Amino acid sequence: MTLLGVGVANAFSAFAGASLAQVQGYADVAMGFGILINGLAALIIGEAITGRDNVLRQLLAPFVGAVVYYLVVAVGLAAGVHPSDLKLVTGLFVLATLGLPAFRRASVREPKLRA
User: Any idea what DSSP says for residue 28?
Assistant: First the structure.
């Protein structure tokens, strides 16, 4: 089943890449790099916000993360941040989001009992 799942995922990815090359009329090696980075950032942000407790939250994480990530991009552009500096802003936001679960754990620690 795992092998079948990986095969189907690769087939969808190949179909998407072939469709994009067909529509644009050319293909480049670095075409999908930005989408990969955006997808990983959205996944990291989404998992930090929703958590990984159950399957529903894991399925919801990429959608929540994508909305939040593109909101950060939109706010940055509306604030007048230069597009090359926007990568730094979004990178710092992703790093801050990575630290969010550890910050939550530190604030919810149970007090130590003395014997």
Answer: -
The C-alpha atoms of residue 64 and residue 115 are separated, in whole angstroms, by: 45
pTM, two decimal places:
0.68
Domain regions of the chain by residue span: 1-29, 32-115
* 49-90 tens-digit pLDDT: 888 889 999 999 999 999 999 999 999 999 999 988 988 888
Compute the distance between CA of residue 63 and CA of residue 46 in angstroms, rounded to an integer.
7
Nearest CA-CA partner of 47 in 11, 113, 99: 99
CA triple 22-83-47, angle to 5 deg: 75
